[in-house]
Task: structure prediction
Amino acid sequence: MTASHSDPRTSTAYPDADDRADYDYQGGDVDRPGLVDDLESIVVGEVRFDEYSRQLYATDASAYEVTPIGVVYPAAPDDVAAVVEYCGLREIPVLPRGGGTSLAGQTVNEAVVLDFTRHMDAVVEVDPDDRRARVQPGAVLADLNAELEPHDLKFAPDPAWGDKSAVGGAVGNNSTGAHSLQYGKTDAYVESCEVVLADGTVTTFGEVSVDELRERAGDDGIEARIYAEVARILDEESDEIEARYPELKRNVSGYNLNALLEASEDGTVNLAKLLAGSEGTLAVVTEVEVSLEPIPETKSMALLSYGSVVDAMADVEPILEHDPAAVELVDDVLIDLARETAEFEDVVAMLPEGTDSVLLVEFYAENDAEGRERVAELLSDRVPGNGVEGAVTDGAPAAESTPAVAALEAHDADQRALFWKLRKSGLPILLSRTTDEKHVSFIEDCAVPPEHLPEYVEEFRAVLEDHDTFASFYAHAGPGVLHIRPLINTKSEMGAETMEAIADDVTDLVVEYGGSVSGEHGDGRARTQWNRKLYGEALWETFRDLKSAFDPDWILNPGTVCGDHDMTENLRYDAEYEFDAGFDPDLNWNNDNGFQGMAELCHGCGGCRGGQDTTGGVMCPTYRAEDEEILSTRGRANMLRQAMSGGLGAANAAAERTGRAADEVEKAHLSEEFLDEVLDLCIGCKGCAKDCPSEVDMAKLKAEVTHQRHERTGASLREKLFANIDALSALGSATAPVSNWLPKLPGARLLMEKTVGIARERSLPTFRRETVRDWFEDRGGSTVAEGEADRRAILLPDTYTNYSYPERGKAAVRVLEAADVHVELAESTDSGRPAHSKGFLDASRETARENVAELVPAVETGWDVVVVEPSDAVMLQSDYLDLNSGRDAEKVAGNTYGVCEYLDAFRLDERLDANASGALTYHGHCHQKATKKDHHAVAVLRRAGYDVDPLDSTCCGMAGSFGYEAEHYSMSQAIGSILFEQVAESDGNEVVAPGASCRTQLGDRQGAESPAHPIEKLAAAMD
Ligand SMILES: Cc1cc2nc3c(=O)[nH]c(=O)nc-3n(C[C@H](O)[C@H](O)[C@H](O)COP(=O)(O)OP(=O)(O)OC[C@H]3O[C@@H](n4cnc5c(N)ncnc54)[C@H](O)[C@@H]3O)c2cc1C
Ligand code: SF4
Ligand code: SF4
Result:
C-alpha cells in the first residue's frame, strides 16, 4: 500500500477496530444476495452489492450514469482471476476501475466493478538501474512518482489528474498529458502486463518476436486464440491500418493496432501495448511493468500572446520546430472568464495589452542557461524584438510572418507556476455553472495534425454556431488536441439530439483533417459509435474480431470501443431526469438553480480523491483517512443527488411496502441510514468549497439536509447539548471548579459515553471561573482610550476563549492594544456556529440576527469586529449571509476579521515591539482556508521574528464536536494521524494552531502539549 500517509489501519483508533464506529459505508437493499455469497466465498477482498455501493460506482467524470451490478475490491490477482472466471462462466459483465476519472463514460457499466484502488495499489518494485518499475493497477500515478523521485526518475506520461488517477486507468486509457510532445503516451512505457483474461486465465503479455507469436498461435486455449487473431491482423489488415490510422502523436480511439504494426516491422510484438487504450475491454491488468524517464534538470517557459485564437493556432507548427516539451493554448473565452474570477484576475493582469489568446511553451533543459537560451531562440524567431522578461508589445504582429504580438518569459519555479495557473484556470471556471446547461464532455479531446489547427478551429466554431452553442478552446495545441466542451442542456431531448448532431459534424471535420475523435480521453460511451466513421467498416470489424478473440462472450466492459453504446443513452441528466429535494430550502442559495444547482454541481472528476502529500489542500479529509469512495465529496454529492432524483429506491420501496404515497414516506436522503452512512461522516470542514474545481459546498448541503431532518424527526440529546455549548459553558464557568471535578470522578467518562455519547478518550475543556469578560471588566476596559486609538474594534470572545481559554482572549486584547486599537468586548460569546454545525438553522439564524443587530451600529460608525476563533470569524464573514439576507449582515460580514487577519490586513502588527525567535509549525483552520484567509497568521508570525513552517494540512479531524462523539472518535483519529505525521516531519519545534478544535486534537496526542494560538505567540514576542 502506498498511501500518502502512514496507514491508520494498524492503529486501534482506526474505525474497523472500534466497535463504537457502527457505520459500514453500505446501505439500502443488497442486490443478488446469492451472487454476493458466491463471490464472498471465492475472494479475500470485499464484496459490496448494497444499493449505496452500486450508486457510488454508477458515475465517473463523464456525463453518463449506469448502475453496476455490484462492487468488488480485490485483494490480490487471485481474487481478480476468481471473479472473472466466475463471471465469465455465467456471462456476467466485469468492469475494472481505477480512480474513475474518465471523461467519456468508459468506467460505468452494468457490470461487476473491480475497484483496484483500495487494496491493489502497491509499487511492487523499483529498479533504478534498469529504469523499470512493477506496479499494481490501483497505484495512483503521483504516489508512484513520489517513490521514483529519490531516484531522479518518473513515470513520464503526465495526465492532469495524475494525483487522483491510477496506473491501471492510465493503461486503460493510454493516458498522457501536457508533455506528450516529449514523452508520447502510456503505451510507450508499458513493457509488460500481468493480466487476467476473460475466462480467468492468468498470463503475462510482453515483447515477443513475431515468429514466437505465430508459434504460440498454434497452441490450444484462449491465449493461442488471441495470438492467432493478432497474427491474422498483421497478415491481413496491415494496409487498412496504415491507410486509416491518423498520423498523430495523440490518438486513443479504437484499439492500438498501429503501435502493433509499427513494432512488427522490427520483428516483434508486445500485446501489453495493445492493452493500452483498450478501456478494460480486452483483459484485466493485475500488474504492470513500466519503463521510466529521468526527471528533467530544469525548465523554462515563454508565454506568447496573440490577437486571435486563429493567429495562435497558425503559430503552433513553427513553434514545434523548436522542439518544446509542451505547447498549450488558452483562448479568448477563457481569458475573459478568468479576468472576472477573483482567483485568476491577478494572473490575467500580467498578460500584455492586446492579448486575446496565449500559447504557453515549455522547454526542458539541462541547466538554467540552456533553458534561457532555448526560450531566447524561440522568441527571436517568433516574437523578434519583443522577447524579454516582462511584456513588450505594440499590439501588432512583431513581423509579418509571426503572428505573436508579445511574449513573457519564466525561468524560476514561482513564475512558471503562475503561467501554468493561467493554463489550468479553464476547468474550474467552465465547470462551476450550476445552471441546467453544462459544459459537457463528448468532443472535448478531438485531435488534428497541428498544421491544420487554424482552419480546424474556425470550422469547429462554425459547427458550434450552427447548433446555437459555444465553447472555449484550450489545452494541448502542440500535439493538436484541443479541449472543447460545448454548453448544452442534456435535460432536454433537444439537448441530447444537439449533442449527437455536433458530434457527427465534428467527426466529419476531424476525418477531413486526418485527425481522431479522441486524442486523450478515450472512446467510452461518448465516442465508441464514431469509431465506425473514423476508421471505416473494415477496421470496425477488425476491432470486433480482436475483441471476440480476447473475450468471446463480451463480458469485459461490453459496449465500449467497438460495441453498441449510443452516446445519447444513459446520460446522467436526460429528459426523464427529475429532481425533488422534498423540502423548501432554508438557507440562502444565491447560485443559479439554488439548492438543486449545488446538489447537481459535482461532475465526478474525482478531484476529492487526492492524497495529502500529492494533492495537498483540505479536500477531502475523510476520504484521505480511509480511501472509501462514500467518504469523498464525490461520493456524498452523488448519493445526495441520486437520493433526490429517484436513484435510491428507499423511499419508493418503503411507499410500496406500506401502501402509502411516496411523498408521505421518509425521503431516502432523510432516512437514518442515509444520514449515518452518507452525510454524518462529512465533518463540515468546507475543504470542498475551496479545493473542488466546481466549489461543491458539501458542508452547506449537509447543514440544509440535517436541518430538514430535525424539522421532520427532531434531534438527539447530544446534538442539542453541542448546539447549546455556549449556555452550558456559561454554566460550567459559573459553577467551576465543581463543574470540572465531575468529569474526573471515577467512571464519569464511561458514563458520559454511555449516556450522551461523548468519547471516553476525550479530555473535556476545563471551565474557568474568571472569564475574558470578567478580566476585561475588572481591569476597567481598554487601556487605549477611544480618542487616542488608531482603530476601534469589538472583540468577540467566543465560547471556548471566554469560558475555557481566557489567556487567548487576554493575549488578543494585549496585542491589539499594543497596536493602538481601542477594544470593547461584544455582548455575545456565541456566534451561532455550534448550532449551525449541528443543523439547527433556526437557532443559528436567531443568534446571527441578534449579533448583527448588536454589531451593525458600531460597524456603521467605523468599528471593526475581531474574532479569536477562526470558525466563529468565518461564521460572521460568510455563513451569516447564508442565514440572513440584507445589508446589515453584509456590513458585519465585510467588517469582521479573524484576529491575525486583522493585524495583517491593516499592518497593525508592524507597530508591535515584537522580537521573537524560534521555529514554529503552523496548522491553519480549514474554515479559514476555505475562505482564503489562512495566510495572515503566518505573515504576522514571521514579521514578529518567528521561523514558520506552514503545513499544507487538511482538517485536524476534530471538526467542532465531531471528534468528541464516541462513534466518530476513531475516524477523527484516523484523520488526525495525517496531521500528526506532518507535524512530526515539520521543521518547527512547536506547533501553533488558531482553531480550538485543532488545539484539542493536537493536545490529545500522546505526550503532546496543547498548542498555542498564534495570538499568544505574538503576545509572547512582545514580552
Ligand atoms: C479534470 C480531468 C483532467 C484530465 N486530464 C487528463 C489528461 O491530461 N490526460 C489524459 O490522458 N486523461 C486525462 N483525464 C482523464 C483520466 O483522468 C485519465 O485518462 C486517467 O488516466 C484515468 O485513470 P483512472 O484511474 O481514473 O481510470 P478509470 O477511469 O478508473 O479507468 C479508465 C479505463 O481504464 C480501465 N481500467 C482501469 N483499471 C484497469 C485494469 N486494472 N485493467 C484493465 N483496464 C483497466 C477502465 O475499465 C476504464 O475503461 C482527465 C480527467 C479529468 C477529470
Ligand atoms: S466534488 Fe468536486 S472535486 Fe469531487 S468529484 Fe465532484 S466536482 Fe470533482
Ligand atoms: S466538507 Fe470537508 S469532509 Fe465534507 S465533503 Fe467537503 S471536504 Fe469532505
